[in-house]
Amino acid sequence: MSTEFPESPGFSSAQDFSGADEAMERAVGAIPLVDHHVHGALATDVSRRQFEELITESDRPVPAWMTQFDSQIGFAILRHCAPVLDLDPHADPETYLARRAELGTEEVNRRLLAASGIGHFLVETGYRGDEILDPAGMSAVTGRPADEIVRLEAVAERVVAEGTDAAGFAARFEAALWERSRTARGLKTIVAYRHGLDLDPRPPSPNEVTAAAGRWLRTAERTGTVRVDDPVLLRHLIWKGVDRGLPLQFHIGYGDPDVDLHRSDPLLLRGLIELAEPSGVSLLLLHCYPFHRNAGFLAQVYPNVYFDVGLGVNYTGARSVAVVAESLELAPFAKILFSSDAWGPAELHHLGALLWRRAMTRVLSGFVADGEWSRARAVRVATMIGAENARRVYGLGEGT
């Protein structure tokens, strides 16, 4: 069997992929990844303080006595992103940020997004969208397709902000969802943030929805804040999302302090998964760390469940190889996808791809070296997870 594979413009053989065979490195590097859950890159320049706040999931200010660069993701930026900006690997933070400012956000985005080798972006637009590039902006910078993932909660909050009464909320939301997702590739819910996954899995009745909408509207009028967190309404949004028929993403596990981590274990979704199974709608569990093994079990036993380890890969940095290896333990390989969940700094988009490629290369090379897998099968699995599974689930057609 030939071991000649094309080089990818976004994947340099000069990277440190020790422990991997060169043929595997070239093959994994050549995959035009489909990032099935990502957000836009920064649209404007940011200060050092702002940058450091964007490379952590904490929503608290960075204490004056420390820096977020002293972390796995900080070290990964200085190791792997610095060369893309014409710096030596392991540059110090001051040199790195000075070079970043010198180039400007537009050029930094262009370089790092190109270096990622991502061939298709599925961009979720429901969070602070005015600060980041929209799908069209991501496509313009990269020359690659970028489609939208619509956040259910954002649609509901827009309906309330534009004006509705309790009795009319359900119909207004359904109409808005269908219009808003007319060209979207999928939907997403952040129920893990707004309540937790330990909610009644059944669709609420129309009377329950109207009563809950009334409570929400009164709260919004009193506080001036439009935020949907009532479990009845969240269930309603999810089931209307299922009715819409598009792939439905769930944030799972690790995230900012708004998430109650022990209530974001995907095993809590088992009842909903089983009730949704007859619909045929694909349920995609995002990120999942530290519950990625639980997600792998669900993906194994339920045909409508898929998962990724996106966010966890970036934030575990040099340890991300272990996270990716663990994601391969239980689930059929047709049920695992790639994502970065990058939001803001293009460093996160680049690292999401690079660290995943490095991890897959090392793990699969080990399987081949041990005689457990053939190289051809290892390359096929990497291609499935990196691109083909997402193309099938979201109906993207053949890649380039």
TrEMBL record:
Pfam families: Amidohydro_2. GO terms for molecular function: hydrolase activity. Residues 203-396 form the Amidohydrolase-related domain. InterPro entries: Amidohydro-rel, Metal_Hydrolase. This is Amidohydrolase. It comes from Streptosporangium carneum.
